[in-house]
Design a protein that fits this description.
Helix 2 links the parallel strand 1 and strand 2. By secondary structure, the chain is of the alpha/beta class. The chain is built from twelve helices and eleven strands. The chain has two domains: 164 residues, D-Maltodextrin-Binding Protein, domain 2, CATH 3.40.190; 128 residues, Bacterial extracellular solute-binding protein, family 7 (D-Maltodextrin-Binding Protein, domain 2, 3-Layer(aba) Sandwich), CATH 3.40.190.170. 45% of the residues are buried. The longest helix has 35 residues. The strands form two sheets. Strands 7-6-8-5-9-11 form a six-stranded mixed beta sheet, sandwiched between helices. A five-stranded mixed beta sheet has the order 2-1-3-10-4, sandwiched between helices. The termini are far apart. Helix 2 packs antiparallel against helix 10. InterPro entries: DctP_fam (IPR018389), TRAP_DctP (IPR004682), TRAP_DctP_sf (IPR038404). It is found in: Cell envelope. Keywords: Signal, Transport. Pfam families: DctP.
């Protein structure tokens, strides 16, 4: 069968066009970054704000990277997400409190000792120095690239449903949800509570059904997650301050080009700067927001708690093989 010259030209043009599309597709293939967190993906909490800043920075500074945010445990609970990241699967990144890594990087539990941090600046001085460098190395040994240390938007306080806490002994025996971390459990039990480890996503229902008497968290998380709908009172115990950490799956990090790594490093640096600058303001704002929706805010004398915490810090740090790290934290006061 004879093929006309025009037909051959048309076929050739089609092949060239297809090749062009194929090359274009290859040249602009994007790496999708999935940022996971258990908190709500909004701007009312520290993790949500950090993720939003990173997403906008990366997507506006790179044609190679596509940054997506998955809040409210959309990719699974923290432990499931972190274990998958170690394998280079599931989520690419995670942002959250350092305590959720305690079962994987136990020495990091030193950051979550009770009544340890004096103020926000104390956290920054410690983590921006030798302490942070040593912990970053330990995180890498477990499969995580640390891109930055952030601030929780406020200290953690005890939040209850029904019974207000006005004095230290009011905490005794209450079933208070805390993070699934031995350090957090020990801290709450030392205060007299019946610490109840539980995934963040289960708190709302547990309070509704009476399984819990309360929980402990920063005011910004209480507000952004609408936990004020199932609780009444905030006792300003300020017993824990869990720093936050931005991590990337080390397996996936090593697959990135230097150019893409720089974009992500710059994005993380900017996000952490904003996160830290906003922390004191956001803590005050969140407490006011909780008061505005009807929650009562009470001050509690924690003098004895703080005295009792010092030997507990020493004991827990020794158990974690982190006595040297505890000294770095105390020296940074």
């Amino acid at each position: 069968m004879m093929i006309s010259k025009n037909a051959r030209r048309f076929a050739g043009a089609c092949l060239m066009t297809c090749a062009s599309f194929a090359l274009t597709g290859t040249a602009f293939a994007q790496t999708t970054i999935k940022m996971a967190m258990s908190s709500v993906a909004d701007l009312e909490n520290d993790n949500g704000m950090t993720a939003w800043i990173m997403q906008n920075y990366v997507n506006s500074h790179s044609d190679n990277l596509k940054f997506e945010v998955y809040g409210s445990s959309a990719l699974g609970g923290d432990q499931d997400v972190l274990q998958a990241m170690q394998l280079g699967a599931g989520a690419t990144m995670h942002v959250g409190g350092t305590a959720v890594y305690n079962s994987i990087v136990p020495v990091g539990g030193v950051l979550d000792l009770p009544f340890l941090w004096q103020d926000f600046d104390h956290v920054g001085r410690a983590l921006d120095g030798e302490l942070g460098a040593k912990l970053e190395a330990r995180f890498e040994e477990s499969g995580f690239k640390v891109l930055g240390w952030g601030y929780s938007w406020g200290y953690r306080n005890v939040v209850t449903n029904g019974k207000a806490i006005e004095k230290p002994e009011d905490i005794k025996g209450l079933k208070i949800r805390t993070i699934q971390s031995p350090v957090y459990v020990a801290a709450l039990n030392a205060m007299g509570a019946n610490a109840t480890p539980m995934a963040f996503g289960e708190i709302y229902t547990a309070l509704q059904t009476g399984v819990l008497d309360g929980f402990e968290h920063a005011a910004s998380m209480v507000y952004s997650s609408k936990l004020y709908e199932v609780s009444d009172h905030v006792a300003l115990t300020r017993h824990l301050f869990g720093p936050t950490v931005l991590t990337y799956s080390l397996t996936l990090w090593n697959q990135l080009s230097e150019e893409d790594q720089k974009v992500l490093t710059d994005a993380a640096k900017f996000a952490i700067e904003v996160n830290r600058a906003m922390a004191p303001v956001r803590e005050r704002k969140a407490l006011q927001q909780l008061e505005d929706v009807g929650m009562t805010i009470t001050n509690v004398d924690t003098t004895q708690f703080k005295k009792d915490a010092v030997p507990l810090q020493d004991e827990l740090a020794a158990d974690l093989d982190a006595t040297d790290l505890l000294k770095l934290i105390r020296d940074a006061q």
